[in-house]
Amino acid sequence: MVLRIQDLYTFHVVARTGAMQDAAHELGVTPGAISQRIRAVEERHGLRLFTRSKNGIALTPAGLALQSDVGKAFSTIETANETHLIGQNSTVRVSTSATFAHSMLVSSLGRFADAHPNISVTVETEDRLVDLKSEPIDLAIRHGLGQYSGLTSEWLCSPELVLVASPSLLEKHGLLNTPADSLHYKLLPDCTGQDWSIWFEAHGVDAKDAKYGMQYGNDFLTVKAAIEGQGLALLKDVFVNEGIAAGQLIRAIDTAWPTKFAYYAVALDEVREKPSVSKLVMWLKKDLG
Q: How far is CA 1 from each of CA 19, 70, 81, 264, rounded to the nearest angstrom?
């Protein structure tokens, strides 16, 4: 059976977008045509490439293997095509946390839109780590140390987090002199549950014995918990400045901020090379850095 390149490319687009409807819209065909093309590819390989449920579709192991083989080639072709069409409109899909979007990204994207009116940006805000190999996301902005296997990452900015505690908590357990002293306290997780472990790693502290308190999933609630003495909190200054000014919170330690603990633009190599993605990354590095 001869496999048409059109059918294989349709498989790639469905795998990239994660939805038959989105692929149909991008390719300008009906969802029925998409289904027929996917069926042709599955018949050619003799394997199911997608699982289907009420929540949508997902790649099977066979589908993941096929996308791994053909995805880079088709992405290279898409990049070459986009390069010739750069004067026309293009869209970059970004995933990041709601906190980063609110505090830094929205304002920067407003300026980016003025400078690059032919590039639109859509932003999805959620704290989970999206799978850039299978989900319809071009660029993820992640908070960490910049080490993401199989992906390219570029340092954007390193806003300092403030380690705070209530005065009564510090009076009870003593002041902190080093990052390791935090281990004597209960630690209040941020909304992602990851900042403490990354902060300890950046400072070279073995935190396997760290004790964690309640995770509230909202930085404003974490501030309230810190004010009430439930534990130490590691948060952006915008959330704690008011509490510090009112004497409800105290900076618990004064130490150099590890600049590797930062926000990074993360993407697949071939997606990072797209002109629209490249322009956005370069803008964010200059505008936020």
A: 26, 19, 29, 45
